Amino acid sequence: MNPQDSFRIVVLGGGESGVGAALLAQAKGFDVFLSDKGSLTEEYRGILAANNIPFEEGKHTETIILSAKEVIKSPGIPDKVLLIKKLYEQGTPVISEIEFASRYTKAKKIAITGSNGKTTTTLLIYHLLKSAGINVGLAGNIGESFAKQVIDDTFDWFVLELSSFQLDNMYEFKADVAVLLNITPDHLDRYEYTFQKYVDSKFRLLQNLEASDDFIYFIDNEPIALELGKKSFNVNHLPISFLKKEKNGGFFQEGILHLTRNTRTFDINANELPIKGPHNAINAMAATLASMAVGLTDEQIKNGLLTFQNAAHRLEPVAEINGISFVNDSKATNVDSVFYALNSFDTPIIWIAGGLDKGNDYTQIEPLVRQKVKALICLGKDNSKLLSFFASIVPVVIETQDVKEAVQYALSFGQPNDVALLSPACASFDLFNNYEDRGEQFKATVRSFIS
To answer: By the 8 A CB rule, do 308 and 127 touch?
Structure first.
């Protein structure tokens, strides 16, 4: 790689991670070029121009890209793209922004992945550390680019949310604390519809861990347990379970979170936590163990847990109207997330679901729906799959393509103590810009009914 100034780096993708990577590459003396097949936002175009970083948009000029010594690829670009295949075939290293930035930071790293719950857990760990006075940064699949923050490298710790797409192009990256929450079928189109390839991607999180590093994981998740049965990892294992108490790790029993890391223990009642439901007990146990690894005191951990506010669109309370609690869980774009959501309530549920189906198999939530859902409001352009599956299971099933009408139905079907839950199980792009847009429209509509 030396001399650095003769080493040409090409960044593919001009979003937050790509522009951050280009800025870091320039700061480290590399000759860097950014290419985006789409169009850049005005903000990113301005940043690149102000820093005299050459870029192109609306195309990928192959002669420039294929001449690179190393390529930093946006996680949104799949490996099956012809240009990426050509880079691999000629032996050009293709890495992620996270991999690149990790070369230049002195900070210790807590890395979190999982099919569901990773944003909540990442934000909770970040809140715990920050509220305890730790000099900590937040990056990865959330917030400001990791690479951009590494330019000044002022933090002692980073909390990184990592998707499987980011992990795919990470090779030398090493976490000090690794958190694996769960693995359920998702994004299989990127993995040739082979679940094992998706599992392998998630387990890349462990690839460089050392014996002194902590590995926190939910052992009750079958794919994680099966994979750990095949391979051994020489790390400090901290399994989390609802079923079995281990010497080290987390155990949830009779409403109490029991945490043990080496010789230290910490307990807290789940009822005290601002985030509810069994899935959030897992998230809270993972975050607590990570905080214990950093060295937070019991008082600091408890204070952080009790003062946490979750991100929007994740089982977010919206309002209570006529005794009906409206909850926005628009981020629930797969069946597994809906399972966790339905499990979080003990009162009758009016379930608002629908959108672009991702190959959903609803059989895993059928028992919960039978037990808990009194009405299903299908909110989507094509509700045929939801309608056909649940018509004989839920007492009332109705469809609409209008958020206001969905809320009106919920008010007409609901009674005091019921929950009206938007937890779609589907992508949002049929009627909305994204899941945030869907959630914001839902919240605004619900609040418009408050007299």
So the answer is: yes
Please indicate if the annotation marks 120 as binding a ligand: yes
Q: Is 354 annotated as a binding residue?
A: no
114 annotated binding-site participant: yes
Beta carbons within 10 angstroms of residue 212's beta carbon: 9
Furthest CA-CA distance within the chain: 71
Is 119 annotated as belonging to a binding site? yes
**How far, CA to CA in Å, does 40 sit from each of 16, 20, 57, 84, 231?**
10, 14, 7, 20, 43
Statement: residue 42 has pLDDT above 80: yes
**What confidence category does residue 218 fall into, taking pLDDT thresholds of 50, 70 and 90?**
very high
118 marked as binding residue: yes
- What domains lie within the chain, and their CATH numbers? 4-95 (3.40.50.720), 99-306 (3.40.1190.10), 316-448 (3.90.190.20)
Q: If you search the block for the tokens 């003990």, which residue do you land on?
A: 346
| pLDDT digits 0-9 by tens, 258-284 | 999 999 999 999 999 998 888 899 999
pTM above 0.85, yes or no: no
pLDDT at position 13, please?
Answer: 96
